[in-house]
Amino acid sequence: MELLWGIGPKPTRGPKQGLTIERIVDAAVALADAEGLDAVAMRRLAEALEVGAMSLYTYVPGKAELVDLMLDRVYGDQLTDMVARSGAGDGGWRSRLEARARADWAMYERHPWVVRTAGPRPILGPNELAVQEATYAAVDGIGLTGHEMGAVITLVAGYVGGVARGIAEVRAEGETQTSEEDWWTERSAMLDRVFDADRFPVSTRLAAEGVFDGAPDAEDYLANEIRTTFEFGLERVLDGIAVLVAERNTTT
Amino acid sequence: MELLWGIGPKPTRGPKQGLTIERIVDAAVALADAEGLDAVAMRRLAEALEVGAMSLYTYVPGKAELVDLMLDRVYGDQLTDMVARSGAGDGGWRSRLEARARADWAMYERHPWVVRTAGPRPILGPNELAVQEATYAAVDGIGLTGHEMGAVITLVAGYVGGVARGIAEVRAEGETQTSEEDWWTERSAMLDRVFDADRFPVSTRLAAEGVFDGAPDAEDYLANEIRTTFEFGLERVLDGIAVLVAERNTTT
DNA sequence: CACAATACGGTACGGCGTACGGAGTCACAA
DNA sequence: TTGTGACTCCGTACGCCGTACCGTATTGTG
User: Fold this and answer.
1) CA B51 to chain centre
2) What's the pLDDT at B65?
3) What is the mean pLDDT of chain B?
4) Which listed residue, A2, A235, B228, B246, has the most CB atoms within 10 A of its CB?
5) How many Å apart are CA A247 and CA B94, to the nearest integer?
6) pLDDT for position A116
7) Are the C-beta atoms of A2 and A20 separated by less than 8 Å?
């Protein structure tokens, strides 16, 4: 996809283009941020840009490519995010990798629609490659083989993406109307009717301990809990990697 | 969603129903397995079941609910998978949790479309709850608080889901035609033109080491590598949890 | 100044989910 | 026994979607 890199022959003959790919992608990202990925329809996007629907196809071959561009765009945001944090973090691989994971997480928080794209496939866009490079650099020179480095970043990226994905729905539920309160009471009434303490002993005990509470109302309380869960898991992941790193450095 | 639990008033007045929800969900899952989630369209599904398109709405209120049912269905498969493995594994929390993760992984391998559903939200279906119960039970009684148990399973589930999601595209690419070979040579030619060794030093070195090779052809080689990466990350995750468990058990 | 190349965008096609309403089928009350 | 109302099945249609096609307007070049 040479569009991503902004290369390719530029025409001289015809009329000027009234838009730029950049503006289109910006508008698309804004639309997705505001109203979700489904809102990014060619007609709606064109309307937002005040052009005809089909005009967009002058800039972009199809919607799939547009989504690719959107993804590489938000990777770019992540890059600036990383350099902003990099000033403080110079503590070693752990803090570097942690910063990377947190930048990833911030991206998912800012752009929840990313998890809904049909798999952040290897787009090979400039920003994606830059992020990947930075991630590899974070675990470079600490005694791991190349394959291990690859596996480690897959691990971290997988974890962050997985939690983000798992959490997206909770956030999404919050955004639907249905007045939140009603939904939960209805739901839990349903659960009560069906929940069998004998079949689910551990869950029952944990519910009694209040582990599953705190979901109704209280938006930022919920957000806080999500963040806590994320941080907790991240520490475990990094601990696990630390075990490997220590092993490699003593065995050698 | 009382459909999931098979409760609710059953009518006596009208004609018999010619289908069952079970048959519909089975067909839908088969369709998704064979041709992907997009192939599960109400008309196509109805055609496969040899009924009119709108008849399905007698059984299911809408497509979203159908997808929920499909998800709880594959959770059910996972359950049988788990009891099959449980005979061997009785080594402690680690092997229990490992078995859970592997069952999850097997589900994603058997039903790649699961990662494409709009967030495996808390459906609260019977099978999902059973799986959750089993997962909680795996980490029960090892010295963790309720919240920690929750965070641990979020961690594991997030990791597995994340890697499955990250991997889905590679698998998907393999299934598209475009003759695989051409795609890669074209892609890498593109990359060569654009890849700047100065901007991406670490990636360049790793590429030279051959870390990124092995992607063309060789389907089961690739599958093997994916599995290796998954297993590797899983070990790290479990190591990280082990650190926590050890800490809790000595501090106490 | 003519011409070729390009941008713009209206119309239209096939596909999606599903609202609506009519026709046929069955259990039960009268 | 028969009427009635609940229920199933499903054809039609509506409003979305992505996008193929093509006419028209605009531009730089020979």
Assistant:
1) 30
2) 93
3) 84
4) A235
5) 20
6) 87
7) no
Helices A126-138 & B201-209 angle (0-180, nearest 10) = 80
For residue B239, what pLDDT band results from cuts at 50, 70 and 90? very high
Instruction: Give the H/E segment covering residue A89.
Output: none
With cut-offs at 50, 70 and 90, classify the pLDDT of residue A175: low
Residue A146 and residue B118: Cβ atoms within 8 Å? Answer: no
Q: 10 Å Cβ neighbour count for A145?
A: 12
State whether residue A186 sits within 8 Å of chain B by CB: no
Contact B159 A159 (CB under 8 A): yes
Tokens of B134: 């089993």
pTM of the model: 0.88
What separation in angstroms does the CA of B169 have from each of A57, A240, B32, B200, B238? 25, 27, 16, 24, 26
- Chain B touched by A172 (CB under 8 Å): yes
Q: Scan for tokens 């991206």, then name that residue.
A: A107
Q: Which amino acid is at B160?
A: V
Q: Tokens at residue B232, please?
A: 């590797």
> Hey, what amino acid is at B226?
I
Place of tokens 């040899």: B50
| Cα separation, A137 vs A130, whole angstroms | 10
**Predicted pLDDT of residue A193:** 78
A233 touching B (Cβ < 8 Å): yes
| Nucleotide closest to residue B57 (CA–C1') | C18
What torsion do the CA atoms of B211, B217, B223, B224 make, to the nearest 10 degrees?
A: -60
Question: Picking from A1-15, A47-61, A193-207, B102-116, which range would have the lowest pLDDT averaged per residue?
Answer: A1-15
Q: Which has the higher per-residue pLDDT, B18 or B244?
A: B244
**What is the spatial distance between Cα B101 and Cα A155, in angstroms, rounded to a whole number?**
14
Q: Quick one: DSSP state of residue A121?
A: -
* Closest C-alpha among A202, A161, A243, A222 to residue B244: A243
Q: Taking 80 as the threshold, does the pLDDT of residue A76 lie above it? A: yes
Lookup: tokens for A91: 């503590």
- E-strand ranges in B5-64 read none
